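Q: Here's a chain of 228 amino acids. Please give me its 3D structure as C-alpha cells.
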Amino acid sequence: MKSDIAVVLVSGGMDSCVTAAIANEQYKLAFLHLNYGQRTERRELKAFNDIADFYEVELRLVVNIEHLKQIGGSSLTDGSMKVQRADLRRRGIPTSYVPFRNAHVLSVAVSWGEAIAAHKIFIGAVEEDSSGYPDCRQEFYDAFNCVIRLGTKPETNLQIVTPIIALKKSQIIQTGIELGAPLDSTWSCYQNEDVACGVCDSCALRLRGFQQAGIEDPIPYVVRPIYR
C-alpha cells in the first residue's frame, strides 16, 4: 500500500497527465486543479476529472482563482486578446503567458500539501516551454522549494518535484505510453473546447511531439499541420 501522499497539479493537459502517471508509481495521489478564467476552463476541468477517474483518485481539490482573469494580461484569460498562431521558433514571451500563474498554483498546492501531510508536489513543467514561460524553468522551482522550507512548519516535509522538466514532448509521450497514461483523456488546446485547433502554440508542441515519436495523437483536431 502507498502511504506517502503526493499532490499532483493536473491541468488536464498531456504533461500533467504523464506527471501523474509517474507519481502514481510510488505515491498515493491527491489531485489539484485550478480554474482561473481560461478560455478552455470547462474542457480542462473535464480532462482533470477523467484523468482522476482513471487513477481512482479520491483526494481531489478544484480551486477557483478568478482574480487571474481580472488581472488579465494573457490571451488565455482576456477575450479581447487573440491567441497567437503557432511559431515554434518564436523567442520571447508569448501572449498566452499568464502573469506568474505557476506561483499561484504552487501556493495553493503547498497550503493543501501541508494540511494533508503530503511529502511531494508534482508539477508537469517542461523547460522546452521555458523560452516563452519564465515560470517553467528549473531555477524557478528550486527557488520555490526554498520558500517552502522558510514558510511552512518546521515538521513539514514538502518538496516540489519536476520529473519531466528536461524532456522533449516526444519523450514525454513515450513515457506516458510506457506507463499506460490516458493520453486520450487529455486536452492541450488554448482556444477550442470541442475539437482542438491544431494551430496554437500548445497544439503545435503537442502535435510535433507525437509526430517525432511516430505515434498518432488520439484527440481530434480541426487541422493537423506537420511541425518541424
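Q: Can you summarize the key feature?
A: The chain is about 35% helix and 10% strand.
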